[in-house]
Design goal:
There is one protein chain. This protein is of the alpha/beta class. The protein folds into 2 domains: 3-105 and 152-271, P-loop containing nucleotide triphosphate hydrolases (Rossmann fold), CATH 3.40.50.300; 288-334, no CATH class. The chain is 34% helix and 20% strand. The chain contains 13 helices and 12 strands. An 8-stranded mixed sheet has the order 6-7-8-3-9-10-12-11, sandwiched between helices. The protein has a 4-stranded antiparallel sheet with strand order 2-1-4-5, covered by helices on one side. Helix 5 packs across helix 6. Bound molecules: adenosine-5'-triphosphate and magnesium ion. Magnesium ion (MG) is lined by residues 51-52, 175.
């Protein structure tokens, strides 16, 4: 496994004078997942659900409050800061806003040189690599002495990608890499990322609030809500058989979405040669103890499911305890006491 994230938790200490403000805030709550080499793992969820916090803690840019991150079986928390830096070269992150990533006072060449210099690559070789990388991402090397403001948003993101590649990473975290760009440019950048993935056998953690896009790209998907993973599984399972009410809601809030569109996405994946056959095999029944909880009296304070207030399938028992991920299909898990029935089977 390239990356394993185990029980990752991140608490931010509150700032401010009042007691309520000082209360610590759980941004990521017991999140576990693993990313297989050469695949795309899609992490999807609404704004504030904790996606960027997962990304930053996975890279130890912010240390996790609890939990472990293993990169190629190496537990990152056991590394010295020097060892961590060396390992992190293999893990690069690309954020939404290329303006924040590029120093406006440095030419593109200077920006790209920094990492190569740190790696002790000598001058002529640095120049050769910068030209090669810029060419690779579709920027003319003759423009390398220009400043960031002389490029469009899409071009800047291409430059940021080239700079990340200069570190020769195996693993890229792409945190909403196209959501700041014009729709017409988004597809070009996505295609570039797919091309680079093939060329260099890269592995991606692709973060987005857009389930449509994540479904199209990913081999495996995890849906986050309020700091937790509420559903995860192979992309084709999530697309054809979403089980958590929140995932179903995300699909239905895609404009024009519905079963036809989901089938369209599956067809697009198939066409792109990325989709495996939808896994056959019976979906496990929901744990009987979950069904038994339906009679419990309703509590006024919610110590249970964080999706309760918005859920179309809630019952009193959902307030009792936070639902854990339970198996609902092959490699497919949902954190819900009353998951949506499997496609084609009547709801119970
Ligand atoms: N440094 C910080 N200090 C305190 N709270 C933080 C910090 N960083 C993030 N948070 C809080 O943690 C929660 C998760 O934020 P995060 O940025 O991870 O969400 P996100 O899913 O990436 O959202 P978006 O889609 O808007 O990028 C939010 O409520 C946010 O306000
Ligand atoms: Mg974010």
């Amino acid at each position: 496994m390239l990356l394993e994230v185990r029980n990752l938790t991140k608490r931010f200490r509150g700032r401010g004078i009042s007691v309520s403000r000082r209360k610590s805030f759980l941004a990521v709550d017991n999140v576990s997942f693993s990313v297989q080499e050469n695949t795309i793992f899609g992490l999807v969820g609404e704004s504030g659900s904790g996606k960027t916090t997962v990304a930053r803690t996975v890279l130890f840019l912010d240390p996790p409050s609890e939990g472990a991150v293993l990169f190629r079986d190496i537990p990152l928390h056991e590394l010295s800061s020097r060892e961590l830096r060396m390992n992190r070269r293999r893990m690069q992150i690309i954020f939404q806003d290329p303006n924040a990533a590029l120093n406006p006072k440095l030419t593109i060449r200077k920006s790209m040189e920094e990492g190569l210099k740190n790696r002790k690559i000598e001058k002529t070789e640095r120049a050769r690599r910068i030209d090669e990388l810029l060419e690779l991402v579709g920027i003319s090397p003759s423009h390398k002495d220009r400043y960031p403001h002389e490029f469009s948003g899409g071009q800047k993101q291409r430059i940021v990608i080239a700079r990340a590649l200069s570190m020769e990473p195996d693993f890229l975290i792409l945190d909403e890499p196209v959501s700041n760009l014009d729709v017409s440019i988004q597809a070009q950048i996505i295609n570039l990322l797919l091309e680079l993935k093939r060329k260099f056998s890269l592995t991606y953690l692709f973060i987005s609030h857009d389930l449509n896009l994540v479904s199209y790209l990913s081999d495996t998907i995890a849906v986050m809500y309020s700091g937790r993973i509420v559903e995860t599984g192979p992309a084709e399972q999530i697309i054809s058989d979403a089980r958590h009410p929140y995932t179903v809601h995300l699909f239905s809030s895609i404009p024009g979405a519905g079963q036809a569109q989901r089938e369209g996405q599956a067809a697009a994946l198939e066409a792109a040669g990325q989709a495996g056959a939808v896994q056959a095999g019976a979906v496990q029944a929901v744990a009987p103890e979950a069904a038994g909880q339906a009679k419990a009296p309703q509590k006024s304070v919610n110590t249970g499911c964080t999706y309760y207030d918005h859920c179309s399938r809630r019952a009193g028992s959902c307030l009792e305890a936070q639902p854990d991920l339970i198996r609902v299909g092959p490699d497919h898990y949902a954190a819900c006491y009353y998951p949506v029935a499997r496609q084609g089977i009547a709801n119970t």
